[in-house]
Each structure stands twice: as C-alpha cells, then as structure tokens.
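Chain A, query sequence.
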Amino acid sequence: MMILVIGGSGSGKSSYAEGLAVSLAESGNIKKYYLATMQVCDAEGRQKVERHRKLRSGKGFFTIEQPTEIHHSLEKMEQGERVVLLECISNLTANEMFSEGETKPEMQVVENVIRGIESLKRQVTHFIVVSNNVFEDGVIYDATTREYIHAIGKINQRLAALADQVVEVVVGIPVVI
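Chain A, predicted structure.
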C-alpha cells in the first residue's frame, strides 16, 4: 500500500507520516525504514534534520540517507516485510535537478523520481511518501525555480495517481482526499 502525505511547511505532515508508519509496522512487527533525502548545507538544515531525528527517536526507524536515486535505498534494506517512509519529495526533486553543477531538465527529473518511487512501491509492504504543497505562496520566481516547482507539481500529481490513499495535513489535521 502506498500513501501520499502532503501539506505545507510546518503543517504537521512529517509527524503524521511517522505515526502512520509506526502504526502500520506494529500491525505485523514489520521493519521501519526512514529514507532521508535532505542534503544538509547550513545551520537551518542541520536544525531541521535534528528536529526530525528527535521526532523519530525511540520509534525504531532505520534511517537511510538517500539524497538521489531513491531506488538504491532498496540495496540497504533487509528482505521481508517493510514499512518505508520517504521524507521528502521536494528535497529529492531538488537534489535530482540541481546535482553535479548542472540543472537537469524538468521532465527528466520527473521521470527519474517517479521511476524510483515505482520501484520502491513494488518491493515494500507499505510506502509512505511525504511531499509539499506547491503553488500556494503567490510569489513569482525566476525561471529555474519555476521549473523546480513545476517538477514537484507534476511529481505530486503522478504520486497521487500511484497512491492508494492521499492525505493532506492542514494545521496538524489529516484530511483524507
């Protein structure tokens, strides 16, 4: 089963997704994996990572740092039933788009991310994917940033189509779509 959890910054989506993963794993004593996609570049990033580690503390997640090529995380997991929480699509998209000193084309990034997600979905028991709402701030960005935001929007649409359930977290309240 695949569940897409989406929400704005600070909406509570990460906390909700972690609770969901724990609940799904407890139903069958299933291993829990947390796929961390953030590349830490500054103090703000380190604080965010530390906050997420504290949220997960004591919940039994095995963390896999996988900032790109998300399908390679499968090589780092044990066989058997698995609950996998991917945090998050916006970081994964940025890492795929802006790596190696170049900007990759939007559609190439979308296809790469979706292929990796599809591979994981086929091989794990439960898959929870966290993503961000985009297009809500009303700010006009430069062309490169717009291409990145459009890529996330396209990925989110494709993820919603792949998912068995989509949940939007609004001010800490999960709303099943």
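The domain at 2-176 is CATH 3.40.50.300 (Rossmann fold). The mean pLDDT is 92.
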